[in-house]
Amino acid sequence: MKPKIFVARAVFPEVLERLAQHFDVESNQEDRIFSADELIVKVQGKAGLFSTPSEPVTTALFAANPQLKAVCNMAVGYNNIDIAAATKAGVQATNTPDVLNETTADFGWALLMATARRVTESEHWLRAGHWKKWSYDSFVGPDVHGSTLGVIGMGRIGQAIARRSMGFDMNVVYHNRSRLAPELEARANNANYVGKEELLRTADHVILVLPYSKESHHTIKAADLALMKPQATLINLARGGIVDDAALIDALRDKKIAAAGLDVFENEPAFNPGFLALSNVVLTPHIASASTPTRLAMANCAADNLIAALSGQTPPNLLNRDVQPKV
Predict the structure, then answer these.
(1) Coil, strand or helix: which one is 299?
(2) Strand blocks (E) in the chain
(3) CB-side exposure of 103: number of CA atoms within 13 Å?
(4) Over the stretch 152-205, which tens digit does the pLDDT of each residue have?
(5) How many helices (DSSP H) and strands (DSSP E) are in the chain?
(6) Mean pLDDT of the 58-63 span
(7) Tell me: the pLDDT tens digits for 259-274?
(8) Distance from first CA to last CA of the chain, Å, rounded?
(9) Cβ proximity of 78 and 319 under 8 Å
(10) How many percent of the chain have pLDDT more than 70?
(11) Which residues carry out catalysis?
(12) DSSP strand pairing (259-262 vs 192-193)
C-alpha cells in the first residue's frame, strides 16, 4: 500500500499527479484554510504533510499524529513549523530554498523602484481623475541610481539583490549575522559590511531579506526607523514580524522616512489597516516568489523532499538534521 499524505493547500495539478505516483494523496484543491484543530484531524492516518506557511504545525499536531513522518513546507520560511517539536517527535521537516532566489530578488527590485519613484501612489492619483497639468514637483522622489543600498540579511536572496544594483551604479552596505567571504562581497557589487545602526543612518534604500526568528522579531522598530534619513525608503521582502508595523505606520504618517514597500506583514493576511490610510506605502500580498516557473519549482522541490523522506532517504532540504527519523 502507498503511504498516505495530505496536501494542505491547492497546488499545481501536475504536482498532485506526480505525488499520486508515490502516495495515496488527499488534497485540498478547494484551498480552504484550516485551523490548527482542523489540520490535526486532516493529518490523522497520514505519513506525510505537504504544507505551506499558512498551516500551524505544532506540538499538538505531532502528539495527535504519531504516525506522521515528514512535514514538507512549500516555502523557504518555516516559522509555521515547531522544528524542536518535530525533532522530538521524529518527524523530518523540510523547506524549499534556492529555487526562488532570483525571482524574489527581481520582485525586491520591483518593490524598491515602485516605492522610490512613487509608482502606485501616482497611478491611484491618475485613476482618480486628478491629472490636469504637469508640475515640477509632481510625485518627485529619491533617485535610485547612484544612491546607497542597505541590505539587512545578506543570504542568497540578499546577494542576488545586491548584484542587481551594479546596473544602477549603487554603493552597497550590508548587515548580517556574520560577514561574507571576500569573494562573495565582490560579487555582490563590492558590498561593505557595517553595523546595523551605521547602515540605517547611511542607506538611501533599506531592504530587509533576513529570516524570521525570535531573535529577528522587530529588527526594525521605532528607534531604528528614527535613525534613517527622512528621504529614505524601507522595503520588507522578508517576513512579517521583522518590522514593528505599528511603529512603521507612525513613521510613515509623520514623514520620518519617505516611503515603504511591503510584501509581508505582521499577522498576515489580517494586516494592520493603518497602512491603508497612507499614500506613501506600496502594499503587495506576499507575492515575491509569484512567477509561474518559480512557484512550480517550489512545489516540485517540496514534492522531492516528501518523496525522499517517505522512501527512507535523507530529504535534500532537511531542516532538523539531528532528527532520528521514524522507521
Answers:
(1) helix
(2) 4-7, 24-27, 48-51, 70-73, 92-94, 148-152, 171-175, 192-193, 205-208, 233-236, 259-262, 281-283
(3) 18
(4) 999 999 999 999 999 999 999 999 999 999 999 999 999 999 999 999 999 999
(5) 12, 12
(6) 98
(7) 999 999 999 999 999 9
(8) 16
(9) yes
(10) 100
(11) 239, 268, 286
(12) unpaired
Contacts of 239 (CB under 8 A, 6+ apart): 77, 79, 211, 212, 264
pLDDT surpasses 90 at 327: no
The answer to whether 81 and 57 are in contact (CB under 8 A) is: yes
Backbone angles phi, psi at 25, to 5 degrees: -100, 125
Which pTM value belongs to this model?
Answer: 0.93
* Cell numbers placing 292: 509561474
**Sequence-separated (6 or more) residues with CB below 8 Å from residue 118:** 139, 141, 259, 280
pLDDT of residue 210: 95
Contacts of 221 (CB under 8 A, 6+ apart): 243, 244, 247
Angle between helices 292-309 and 101-116 (to 10 degrees): 140
C-alpha cell at 204: 538611501
Q: What percent of the chain has pLDDT over 90?
A: 98
Q: Is the Cβ–Cβ distance between 260 and 268 less than 8 Å?
A: no
Kindly state the cell numbers that stand for 319: 531542516
